[in-house]
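Dear Dr. H.,

I hope your travels went smoothly. While you were away I took the liberty of generating a structure for the chain from your last submission, since the lab meeting agenda had it listed for discussion. I wanted you to have the full record in hand beforehand rather than looking at slides cold. The sequence, exactly as received, is reproduced here:
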Amino acid sequence: MTHLDFWTNLQPAALSTVFERGFFFLFALLIIFGSLSRILSRSRKDDYLLVKAYRYLGQLLLTMGVLGMLWFFFSFEEIYFFGARFWFLVWLLVSLAWLGWIIRYVKVTVPRMRQMGAAKKDSNKYLPKKKGR
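The corresponding predicted structure, in token form, is as follows:
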């Protein structure tokens, strides 16, 4: 059997007990940490951009945790197409791409938005303001 046949086999063998427990705890932890991230995003109101990053991270973890549990269920029940191993590779690639997007948001977009906000604040101090009544 070639390496490609291992990943594309539509009738894979059942998971061993170690992998069953490992995948279950991995996906359960993703759901728990995703929930915690969403709770943190609601509790922090001081920095909107950081709150948005927590919200994005929570969406990633919750979505991938639920999709992983779904794949685990299909794999555990040996439903051939939906429990196939290539779905785990798809899940992994989508997770990494989404995580890369979040890291790019935090490392590139947030500093640029902060810089634009500071520049806007500096330019607004010279504009006339409405007189208070």
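Two observations you may find useful: The chain has one domain: 15-120. The helical segments are 3-8, 17-43, 48-76, 86-124.

With kind regards,
E. W.
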